[in-house]
Amino acid sequence: MDNATGEQHAAQGTHLRGVILVLVAGTFWSIGGIVVRLIEQAQPWQIVFYRSLTLMLTLTVWIAYRHRGQMGSAFRAAGGRAVIAGLCLSLGFTCWIFALTHTTVANALFLLTTQPFIAAILGRLILRERVAPITWAAMTLALIGVAIMVNEGITLGAIWGDLLALAAALSISSFTIALRSGKSTDMFPAVWWGGGFATLIAAVMLGAGAQSVWVSGWDLGLCTLLGMVQVGFGLIAYTAGSRYLPAAELTLLSLTEVLLGPIWVWIGVGEVPSRPTLFGGIIVLTAVVWRAGYDFRSAPPRSPAKEDR
């Protein structure tokens, strides 16, 4: 095998690794709906506070493990771009909470699904990343699928909520771009910063509203599950995958969150998805499998390499 072929196979292998990591990330994120449904009394900002605090603690352990306790060197290596990425992530969290209180869930979900298009444009302008035609086609198909899923709930007139949902999409896309800009370094500190900023914002909002931080043990356990597993493990997988995939493909493949979320709620609390939700979900699944399947088909064979003579 010549050097060019070996490098091509290595690139395909790392790309495939990125696909798997981002699909795993979307799967972790998808459990958010069912976990929130099981919360009994905690209010949105209380949930955000404990989820974000647990996220920060989870990343502290993860970064310390990866760097053998040398936390300072990890944060110095990630630099200012990690702080910017974390700020974008926390703004995305905050805008999403406000969007859900100012517009319908359907509107917010549909507008959040514009992330792949925003990421594609920003990636092209800032990082000069080329978006493959198959990715554009899959993104469009996924957007159509989500439109069908939420069609019954889309309303007009909730302009501020819709703008906040778009701001959330822009913020998360910007987080992705910042991760990609630091793909040659360990960007896990960016997620730590995101958890820290979001914790601070939630604490300020709780104080401004004279809300207590105290919640029941049951709700605290579920908020911890959200911070450690749903957001924490999900963002660890997403950040790891961001080293190998363009921004547009990252955000597209993470739409498994939208696809799987209604299924977990159906299984967990018996909330049966409507026919449009099922039909639109099949379309989203088709788009994600189509794009991911292309990478699997392009993966290098696992047979032993032989030297060309």
Automatic annotation (TrEMBL):
Keyword line: Membrane, Transmembrane, Transmembrane helix
Signal sequence range: none
One Pfam family this sequence matches: EamA
Top-level taxon of origin: Bacteria
Record field: transmembrane: 18-39, 45-65, 77-99, 105-127, 134-151, 157-179, 191-210, 216-238, 250-269, 275-294
CC per GO annotation: membrane
UniProt keyword Ribosomal protein, yes or no: no
Domain EamA span(s) in chain numbering: 17-150, 160-289
The protein's name in its UniProt record: EamA domain-containing protein
Organism: Entotheonella factor
